[in-house]
Design goal:
Blueprint: E1 5-7, E2 14-17, E3 28-31, H1 34-43, H2 49-70, H3 74-89, H4 96-107, H5 115-145, E4 153-157, H6 171-180, E5 186-190, H7 197-208, E6 213-216, H8 221-226, E7 232-235, E8 239-241, E9 246-249, H9 252-262, E10 266-269, E11 275-276, H10 293-296, E12 297-298, E13 301-302, E14 315-318, E15 325-328, E16 331-333, H11 337-344
Parallel strand pairs: 4-5, 4-7, 5-6, 7-10, 8-11, 10-15
Antiparallel strand pairs: 1-2, 2-3, 8-9, 9-14, 12-13, 15-16
The structure holds 5-S-methyl-1-O-phosphono-5-thio-D-ribulose (MRU).
Length: 348
């Protein structure tokens, strides 16, 4: 599945398969400017750290097109474009791939470029980031598949699949690669309250490819592990600190603690762009808090008493000591993470 992020045939907008309404309906949402791109990111038309990065890269191109339509003189277009990029970069706080992509684009903006040249450069870069992401996921899958044994049942939390990337997936890329190698594996997809990325998106992706998948309530993990029904856990990440602490969808930390208790190896799969070497530990990772409506309502039905407050933290941080390995496109990193991340990801 690679067509969930695509350029419109007229070359004027970015089309995103609307993940808010999957698996019931397959409809595309058009991003035509910065406003619609930020809306798509914030309401989770598109979600998942690498997919957010790819969308943000195209978002910079859309911002440049938007400015070209409105701003007359040079000083005006530069200031206007900078302000749009600032807003885009802040659309979601936890997934570092968003900042990574926008900063890559800013880095290619040289003072001599006119707006037309910059727009062309950014479109070419966005296309490159888009296609590179699929190649990176395949490389990650090849390394990660070695961590999965024939006959394993693999638990995953949230959706770190094709939909969360440009295609193939990070955690689901590892699972796909093991499956493609002929390993007889099964997957448990945790439903992932409140947005239900596991129940709706992971189950949708795997089922349409014939990879055996069972959806479990988030609170079933302890029982499933106690019964010996889980041999490995593989999840994605939104940001990995320099010491290997990994932010991922709320509930991941609990799964990792249970995995440690029951002796189940817990792996994180993420590309280099998800590492934030400027953040020393997980303590420094900002945790997004989303609208209470995601918790108080299921669809349009209210399920909590009116006026009762709820928590809706979207992510938590799994400490590095609970992680058996971090699968990247450069290989599987193991403890000691500070040294190995600095060497393999930081090139030191
Ligand atoms: O809020 P979301 O759906 O964007 O959160 C996504 C996750 O937590 C994923 O597991 C993570 O981004 C890895 S995606 C390859």
């Amino acid at each position: 599945m690679t067509d969930h992020i695509q350029l419109a045939t007229d070359g004027k907008s970015l089309l995103l398969l609307d993940q808010r309404i999957l698996p019931g309906r397959e409809e595309y949402f058009a991003c035509t400017d910065t406003e619609t791109t930020i809306y798509a990111l914030q309401t989770m038309v598109v979600r998942g750290a690498p997919a957010i990065g790819v969308t943000a890269a195209y978002g910079c191109w859309l911002a440049a097109r938007e400015v070209a339509q409105h701003a007359a003189d040079t000083a005006q277009w530069k200031n206007k474009l900078t302000a749009l990029l600032d807003r885009l970069e802040a659309a979601r706080p936890t997934a570092v791939n968003l900042r990574w992509a926008v900063r890559l684009m800013r880095g290619a903006w040289n003072a001599q470029m006119d707006l037309a040249a910059l727009t062309d450069t950014w479109l070419a870069m966005a296309k490159e980031i888009h296609s590179q992401d699929i190649a990176i996921n395949k490389a990650m899958g090849a390394y990660g598949a070695a961590c999965i044994d024939d006959g394993d049942t693999v638990m995953t939390h949230c959706n770190a699949g094709a939909l969360a990337t440009a295609g193939y997936g990070t955690a689901l890329g590892v699972i796909r690669a093991a499956f493609e190698q002929g390993k007889k594996i099964k997957v448990i997809a945790n439903e992932t309250r409140p947005f239900l990325q596991g129940a709706r998106l992971t189950a949708y992706e795997l089922a349409r490819e014939g990879i055996p998948v069972t959806v479990a309530c988030d609170n079933a993990t302890a029982l499933l592990m106690k019964r010996g029904l889980v041999q490995k856990v593989v999840v994605g990440a939104d940001r990995i600190a320099a010491n290997g602490d990994a932010a991922n969808k709320i509930g991941t930390f609990g799964v990792a603690l249970l995995a440690k208790h029951f002796g189940v190896p817990f792996y994180v799969a993420a590309p280099s762009s998800t590492f934030d070497l400027n953040t020393a530990t997980g303590e420094g990772i900002p945790i997004e808090e989303r609208t209470p409506l995601e918790v108080t309502h299921v669809g349009t039905t209210q399920i909590t008493p009116t006026g009762v407050p709820v928590y809706n933290f979207a992510f938590d941080v799994t400490p590095a000591q609970l992680i058996a390995g971090i699968v990247t496109e450069k290989g599987v990193l193991r403890a000691p993470y500070v040294e190995n991340i600095a060497k393999i990801i930081g090139g030191k």
